[in-house]
Amino acid sequence: MPGRGSVPTERVASVERLEGVLLSRPMTAIVGVRGVPAAALQSMRRELRKRGHPIQVATNTSIRHALQAASAKRPSLAPLLDAVEDQTAVLAAEGNPFSLFQELARTRSPTPARGGEVAPNDIVVPGGPTSFKPGPIVGELQHAGFPAAIEKGKVVLKKETTIVRAGGTISREVAGLLTRLEIFPLEVGLNLRGVVDGETFYPPSVLDVDLDARGADVTRAAHAALALALEIGYATPATIPLLLTKAHRRAIGLALATGYPTKETIEPLFAKAMREAAAVGKLQGN
Fold it and tell me: Where in the chain is the domain with CATH 3.90.105.20?
């Protein structure tokens, strides 16, 4: 067995390794792992490693010491110290912070409350019929603050109700009823608390962006800009081929309207003349 004197040495070595991880890649993140079952966490870590985003779990003390040491060499990492709380992991990788946020968000899934948790958002219970049969459940719901009643032989919730406000504690009584109503107010998964990419710190509020929606917005804007440029005849590398095609069509149309012969208009002009001649012949025959 190692002696007592070897423990500090092991801890120092562990912190130094963690410091190396923090400085190894341009993108460094602090990730919350609270509530993730051990088996699920291992699976998530394997998937992230395959995608080039290895994640390392350590004690908060070790992470803080490693961050303090790493911040002396790379000051932009200092804001991550405020994100080290509860159950924490470190992720160092290359890539885009916004894509990383979305990738970690996809690991999250709804989970029932057990009681005692803090509600991350307002917990809203919709009004309407329930699957409960009339009985003592009505009193249980009413006692917990749910607007329950019996209507036409069914247990109903008379109106939509915010049963717990964001930041409030979910009681065990409310948690049990929410589960029976199949309302799962919590999420389990990896929670990105902050990222430093290069010299820039990104809090999660900045990274929580719907990339698909933003991409669609950019596509719509590009189409609108292209249509405007074509309408006003503004020449750019993207519009010049389209403007030339448009001008060519208009030139052909003008030449046909005025009877101006060119290689491209002579055949349709002759066809037009033949049609007109045939029409005149029919009139004369009458």
Answer: 123-186
